[in-house]
UniProtKB/TrEMBL annotation:
Its EC number is 7.1.1.-. The keyword Ligase does not apply. Belongs to the complex I subunit 6 family. It comes from the Bacteria. The lineage of its organism: Bacteria, Pseudomonadati, Acidobacteriota, Holophagae, Holophagales. This is NADH-quinone oxidoreductase subunit J. It comes from Mesoterricola silvestris. GO terms for cellular component: plasma membrane. It is an enzyme of class 7 (translocase).
Length: 162
């Protein structure tokens, strides 16, 4: 099962990255979110899986597709020709980031400690709500304002004649 959900997630993410049509890319994002939700289910966390499907596959993707269609940005513009230094610079940056990620993963303590026996208890929705609205209320509100400002900024940048 893990391999199935991991492949769904990976294929969705790869098709999202290489898709030229933004609407189809948004639908590939849904596939990725469903794969991640399946991985949450395998981790015995049905609350996170349900939130993944409801919030990300539902609300966020609908919002993204609505903004894409509102701005009529789904028509592709002709890409500018990339310079050789841009290609080599981006390849070097990608290799540096991949090397850094591999180094961080290999040096983490998670790989050295044996996994704990048994499956952890499922997440309690009440505990999640308490943690979110008591311990992380300011961060929750700041992220909400940041997302709103980002969406308004994107609309202002694209639609100059409002």
């Amino acid at each position: 099962m893990f391999l199935t959900f991991a492949l769904i997630t990976l294929l969705g993410a790869l098709s999202l990255a290489f898709q030229k049509n933004l609407v189809v890319a948004g639908l590939c994002m849904v596939l990725t979110f469903f794969g991640v939700a399946g991985l949450f289910l395998l981790l015995a966390n049905p609350v996170a899986a349900a939130l993944q499907v409801i919030v990300y596959s539902g609300a966020i993707v609908v919002l993204v597709l609505f903004v894409i269609m509102l701005l009529s940005a789904h028509e592709e513009e002709e890409a500018l020709k990339a310079h050789a230094i841009q290609r080599w610079g981006s390849a070097a940056a990608a290799l540096a980031l991949a090397g850094g990620a591999v180094k961080v993963v290999l040096s983490s303590s998670f790989l050295r400690t044996p996994p704990s026996p048994g499956i952890p208890p499922p997440m309690d929705l009440g505990a999640l709500g308490n943690a979110l609205f008591k311990n992380h209320l300011a961060a929750f509100e700041i992220v909400g304002l940041l997302l709103l400002a980002t969406m308004v900024g994107a609309v202002v940048l694209v639609k100059r004649d409002l």
